Amino acid sequence: MRGITESSRANGHAESSRSSGCHGNGWSNQFWGREVKQLTMDNGQRTTDKPYAIILASGGMDSCVTTAIANVDYRLAMLHVGYGQRTEARELRAFNDLADFYEAGHRLVCRLDHLKQIGGSSLTDANIAVEIANLERQDIPTSYVPFRNAHFLSIAVSWGEVLGAHKIFVGAVAEDSSGYPDCRPEYYAAFNRVITAGTKPETQLEIVTPVIHMRKSEIVRRGRELGAPFELTWSCYQGQDVACGVCDSCALRLRAFAEAGVEDPIPYFQRPHYPWKQDS
């Protein structure tokens, strides 16, 4: 692993592209033309006695809503990992914008260059094309990065143990997603057992996955309830300025916003109509 840096506004992270005012617990702002109140469990007062939670944040819509959920009860220590993926720079910008928006108490940006060297994924290997969206696919897509999330979680556990954090929030989705094997509930249950076995006896650290059983459209609705800034997020697997609209990630996102009856606020090169998922 190379180049682990903890950054803040003072040491030159990517500048935010937003133009909103003050942020944090107990604030109001205009969100998509409506007034929103940030929900808290402490009557809108930011307190220092809340425990820290580590938030694994890619900069996408699922980790954005997961951050919004964590922000209700925890102080935020936001973690982002670059691994040589096609949209690494754009995802980092989204992460920093979200960390600014939620006034994260800590942020940590890590690079795992060995995942690009290992390859085996269309996200890290330029010789493997990003597939056109197929939301009926049953097999694991080429965008799967082999065992990637274990690397991310290991960093989160190490940092969480040092900070004395209580939770690690992960925006994994199993019900309505690309079907990655390291996004399943049993995977995170197993990793929690590893944390218990491999950390100090006094460490009280647990992975939580608040959106794992939600449909993507439910995630959009929950995010709107919490005033999540979807306009700051990025999900596309290949576009860095304008989302392509035709990769799996764009397709899942566009379908989710359509099912929720909300227009997705980020720009797309094209916006195909993807058939709504039928309830089983």
Question: What does this 3D model show about the protein?
Answer:
This protein is an alpha/beta fold and 280 residues long. The chain has one domain: Rossmann fold, CATH 3.40.50.620. Helices cover 30% and strands 14% of the residues. The chain is built from 7 helices and 8 strands; from the N terminus they run ββββαβαβααβαβαα. It has helices spanning 61-70, 88-101, 113-118, 148-163, 185-198, 216-225, 248-260; strands spanning 2-6, 28-31, 34-37, 52-56, 75-82, 106-111, 167-170, 206-208. The strands form 2 sheets. The chain has a 6-stranded mixed sheet with strand order 1-6-5-4-7-8, with helices on both faces. A two-stranded antiparallel ribbon has the order 2-3. A hairpin with a 2-residue loop joins β2 (28-31) and β3. α6 (216-225) crosses α7. The chain is globular, with a radius of gyration of 18 Å.
Please tag this protein with its features:
280 residues; Rossmann fold; six-stranded mixed β-sheet; disordered N terminus
Topology:
Elements: E1 2-6, E2 28-31, E3 34-37, E4 52-56, H1 61-70, E5 75-82, H2 88-101, E6 106-111, H3 113-118, H4 148-163, E7 167-170, H5 185-198, E8 206-208, H6 216-225, H7 248-260
Parallel strand pairs: 4-5, 4-7, 5-6, 7-8
Antiparallel strand pairs: 1-6, 2-3
Helix pairs in contact: 1-6, 6-7
